[in-house]
Amino acid sequence: MDPSPDIIIVGAGATGLSFAWRLATQQPNLKILILERGGHIDQRQGPSLSTDWELALQRQFHANPNIRRSAVDYPVDETATPIKPAFFNAVGGSTIRWGAHFPRFRPSDFRVLSEDGVAADWPITYESLAPYMDINDEMMGVSGLAGDPANPPRNNRPHPPLGFCRGSLKLARAANKLRWHWWPADAAINSRDDSPNRSACNNCGPCGMGCPRHARASADIAYLDKAVTAGVALRTHTIVRKIKASKNVITGVETIDGTGKIKVIRCKEVVLAGNAISTNILLATMPDWHNPLLGKGLMLHPTAIVTGYFADNLNGHAGPFATSLISQEFCETKEDRGFVRGFQLQALRGQGPLSTALGGYGQRLDWGAGHTQAFAKAFGKSMSLTVTCEDIPEPENCIEINMHTQDKFGMPIAAMRYRLGDNTRKLRDYGIERASDWLNDAGANRLAITRLSVQAGFHIMGTAPMGSDKSNSVTSHDGRLHGIENLTVIDASVFVTASPVNPTSTLQALALRAADLMCERLAQN
Amino acid sequence: MSSDVVIAVLDCLVPGDTDGWPAAGQHGLAPKMLELLETLSVDGRQQLAIFLSHLPENFPALSTEKQIEILKTIELSNPDTFETILKACYSAYYTDPEIRRILELKTGYEARPPQPLGYDMLPFDESLLEPVRARGPIWRKVR
Fold first, then answer.
1. Of B19, B89, B138, which has the smallest distance from its Cβ to A181's Cβ?
2. pLDDT at site B42
3. Choosing among A367, A375, A499, which should be mutated to test the B contact, i.e. which has the most B CBs within 10 A?
4. Is residue A135 part of a domain?
5. Tell me, what CATH number does A183's domain have?
6. Per-residue pLDDT tens for A228-237?
7. Interface of A with B in 39-58 (CB under 8 A)
8. How far apart are CA A489 and CA A272, in angstroms?
C-alpha cells in the first residue's frame, strides 16, 4: 500500500474490522490501513485440541493483560478498581477471548434519562441501529430464535438456536414455574455448517480460547477476509504511540514496531477502534486538544455469579459455556425495587475439571482431606447464573492517564478508578436473590455466591460518550471527536449508557453506522 | 530444595482417598507442578522460594497433622503465595493423563480434549417457550 493511506484504523478487533469492511465496500477507492498491535491467532490450532487445554486459561488466554503479559500487552493500573481489566490484543481483539453472547441493547437503553431520570439519552435510537445489527448478525453468523417478547420484533437469526443441555432444561422449567421471562441466548456461533470456512458448533464448551471449527465468530473470522478482499490493508505488530495533529486537524499517527522502530504515517482520517483504555491513552497524546469530560463516566458490567450444585450429573462441560439461556425479567425499572434500571440473568454451563477445582464460577475447592469428595460433588453438577448489572455513569468512575509513567513502548499508563455506585449495589444484591430463587427452584441443593466477579472487566464502556456538543459529551453521534473533524472513535468509549446486556452486537452496529456516515461525509467533501 | 519436601506438600494438598484418587505427591506430580509454577505465573519461582522458606527442613518427616498445621499457617500469613502453589498443584493433578482416566471411569467425562470431537446436546425444544410467549411483549416502548 501507498505509505499515505486515506484512513488509518487503530485496532483490528470487533469494531475496527467491521468498520473497515463496511467502509471499503461502500467506498472502494479509499486506501484503508488497519494498524494492530497484536498478531494473528490461529484458532484452527487452538488449546481446546489439547488435553491440558485448561492451562491456557491461566496464562496465554487469561483475560487480564496484567496477568497474561504477552509481548504485545500493555499494563493497566488496576489498584483502584475491584473489577480488573479484561481485553485481548490480537487480530480479532477481545472477540478471540469471548463467549460470543450476542444480545442487543433495547430501546430503553438509549433513553435512560427520558425514561428513568438518570444518566443521559443517546443521540441515536434503537431504530436507527437495528438495520446495522441485522447486517452484523449475518456477518457474524448469529444463532437464536425470533419472537422474544422482551425485545422488539426482529428478523429471524441466520442460524437456529444452539442445542440445550440438562442444566438449561432445569432452568427453563423453573423459570416457567416462576412465570419469569427466559429465552435461548443469542450467540455469535454457527449452529449449522456455513461453508466453506465455518462449521457448525459441536458443543465443545470452552469458546473463550478460540474455536478450531470457526463456528464461534470472532471479528477476524467474520470480517477480515472480506475486508481484505475489499482492499483493506492490515499491518500487525504495529503499535500506535501518538496521534499527530496540527492545530485541530489530525495529520497522522506515530507508530512503533516489534523492533523498536518508530515511524510516522500520514493520513486524512484516524479511527480509534481499540477499547476505552487505549483510546484514552491515545487522546492524551494530543496536547492541543482537551475535553474535561474525557475519561469520566467509566461504566463496567459489575457481575455477581450464583452457582447451583445439583445432585445429578448435568454434563455441564458440554455446550458453549456462555450461551445457554437468559432472562430479561429484571432489565427494566420497577419503582418498588428501590433502584433504577436492572440486570440480566445469564446461564453459564459447568466447567472442566481443573476449572472446577480452582473455583470456576463458584468457589475454589478446599485442599486436604475431603478435596476429592468435594470435587466429585461439584464436577459436572453445576449451573451458574450471572447477574449482569447495568452501571450508571458516574464522574468518580474514570480512566486516568499518568503522563509521567511509561510502558515499554513509551506510552503513558492508564489507571482504572472505579467503585460500585449505590444504585448498582442495590440492583446487584436484588439480582443475587433472584438468581438464588431461580437456581433453588431448578432443584439446586447448594449455592455458591460470588458477589462481585473480579476478573470480569470485559465491557469497558463510556469515558468519551456521544452527545450533541462538548458541554455534555466528547464525541458526536457519528463518533467524531468534538472539535476535531477527522478523528473518529468507534470503540465502546462512546457509549452513553451501559445497558444490562453484553455490548458487542450494539458496538459493531455503531461501527457499521459510523462507516456509512463517514462515507457520506467524505462524498460531500 | 529437596523433592521430598515438594512431594510431602503435594500429598497434603491433594491426599487422595480410598475411592481410587491417588495422592498428588505419591502420584509423581512434583516435577510437573514445579514446571507449571514457572509457566503459569510470572513470579512462580519467587513464590516457591517464599513458600519453601516457611517450611522446616524436616517437613517430610513430620506427622501429617503437623504438616497440615504448617500449611494452614502459611495459607493465612501468605495467601497469595499459598494460592500460587495450590493452583500449580491442582493444575498438575487435573491435567494428568492418569487422573483424567480415573475421572472418566468415575464420571463418564472422557479423557480427551474437547476438540475435535465435541459433545452431543439435545436439540432446542421450542415448546418450552409456550408460557413465555403467552405473556405477550414485555419490552418497554420509549417516548
1. B138
2. 87
3. A367
4. yes
5. 3.50.50.60
6. 999 999 999 9
7. 46, 48-55, 58
8. 5
